[in-house]
Design a protein that fits this description.
317 residues; globular
Length: 317
């Protein structure tokens, strides 16, 4: 079985090399098939100069920066091809063009390479016109790729924000069966995310050919998100809103959203960069509500008067 010999590398899960190699099969740590043990030992003797590659992070990588700040995990939940990856690429391009998240300024990223990969196809290269990012691969196992932003608020307080770039197939399985073996990544987000943006595909919901199946999948996923993520903040993103056409399928979804008292909805037009400010609004709202009620409090150490050692508080006068 093919595998990577570098500890904590999840290349067989998310198809992204921990060492930053575009072709992970050419990495010296990657062992294809039943290679001799000598090759494994030789690969294990090598090491990277940095503890991160600049590409997407794995679950274990969050521990590298979590001691320094408050980490906010935002889950982008939606069925396949709902616009989650394009949303992240648009966010990055908006920040590059000087847009500011409400109350926060950019302070760095451990995954600039990962952001660039997402945004590369949305740029004009001079040869090919811009297009949407590639579909997020499912991988062999179920580990979400995490994209990172470091932000500072107006008081210069640092926050680390991570976004899960997860394939929609996970959420489709998770919506039907929470404990599906192939939905492990969706369950990880269920346990760790503090704010949720659920994506509804306006294009498919407006299409006479696809609206029936799109409505069914969206309703199942909406029920699962509502049951799993409360009391965390849940926002609805109407993706591809330039394709939006009011119809019965959308009316049913809106009624369910209203019934669940999900108060915030954002309209995102992916095809027109100048009209994509709904992306900034949605992310700013997610961060703000994830941090509500999460102020760091001083640790109070009780005095134990029954224990002479623990009750000692200094030399008496």
């Amino acid at each position: 079985m093919s595998k990577c010999t570098k500890p904590k590398c999840h290349v067989t899960d998310n198809l992204r090399c921990h060492e930053g190699n575009p072709d992970y099969q050419k990495c010296s740590f990657f062992v294809a098939g039943d290679s001799p043990e000598t090759q494994i030992e030789s690969a294990q003797q090598q090491s990277s100069l940095l503890s991160w590659t600049g590409f997407t992070l794995g679950m274990d990588d969050v521990a590298k920066f979590s001691p320094r700040s408050r980490v906010v995990t935002i889950a982008l939940v939606g069925v396949s091809d709902a616009g989650k990856t394009s949303f992240l690429a648009t966010l990055y391009l908006l920040l590059l063009n000087g847009q500011m998240l409400d109350g926060y300024k950019f302070a760095g990223s451990f995954t600039l390479g990962g952001w660039e990969i997402l945004a590369s196809k949305m740029r004009w290269s001079g040869q090919e016109p811009p297009s949407f990012p590639d579909h997020t691969p499912r991988g062999i196992s179920r580990q979400p790729g995490l994209l990172h932003l470091a932000l500072k608020d107006q008081s210069n307080q640092l926050y680390d924000v991570v976004f899960a770039d997860a394939p929609g197939e996970w959420f489709e399985l998770w919506a039907i069966n929470r404990f599906d073996p192939q939905a492990e990544g969706a369950r990880w987000l269920e346990q760790h995310a503090e704010s949720v943006l659920m994506f509804l595909d306006s294009e498919k919901l407006s299409s006479p050919e696809h609206r029936g199946n799109a409505r069914f999948q969206s309703l199942k996923l909406l029920d699962r998100v509502f049951d799993s993520y409360l009391p965390h903040a849940i926002g609805i993103v109407w993706a591809k809103y330039d394709m939006f056409m009011q119809n019965q399928a959308i009316d049913v979804l809106k009624q369910n959203v209203d019934r669940k008292k999900i108060k915030r909805s954002f309209n995102v037009i992916s095809a027109n960069f100048s009209e994509s400010l709904g992306v900034i609004e949605a992310v700013s709202w997610s961060i703000e509500h994830a941090l509500e009620g999460q102020e760091i409090r001083a640790i109070q150490i009780p005095v134990d008067y029954t224990n002479p050692f623990l009750s000692f508080r200094g030399r008496s006068e």
